[in-house]
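Let's study a protein:

___
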Amino acid sequence: MTIRVVLADDQPLIRAGLRMVIDGTPDVVVAGEAGTGAQAIQLTRQLRPDVVVMDIRMPGMDGIEATQTITTESPATRVIMLTTFDDNGNVYASLRAGASGFLVKDMALEDILSAVHVVAAGDALIAPSVTRRLIAEFASRPEPRPRPRELAGVTAREREVLTLAARGLSNAEVAAHLHISLGTAKAHIASLLTKLGARDRVQLVIAAYDAGLVSPLHDDR
């Protein structure tokens, strides 16, 4: 299966660099390029790509607003955000908009290509170390924290798993911490995805944060 990608960035050099790497990969193809958020939405409607690599800062409509529209209109299309961790206020907004990946622009192009494969396969690009950094970023948002979310139907054990996953532990680390098998840890994660209506592990982190299971002001490292 060929992964069809739309590149959305207002910097032609970045799009050219990504296209160069993608063109050398047999199972990924650039279906289109956009220089604005509005163009990214239009291309997604026309082309129905598997993945959109989206810059946050673009003229006119930014990447966050465009991502919200794309993930609402085209749930099968996954979005990877391109940004820097200096964009504190945009991290949480991007994930809430439905982004499945969060990358730093100065990453190696090959790593970004690898992320495209990961996200296209249905996974979220949120490594444990990145999770901890994202939770820390949530604290920088100026808005007051909303009322804690209810976790209807989630068992006590699943709450433990959700808390550990949101703190950045991998499935293997969750299993070791709770003295359960890796298969059981994976089963709990799958159950949480279903019960919470989450697309991926990124949204599980958001759910844990909203439920008050983890605090962005506390460093669990």
About this structure: Confidence is low (pLDDT under 50) at residues 217-221. The chain has two domains: 3-125, 156-210.
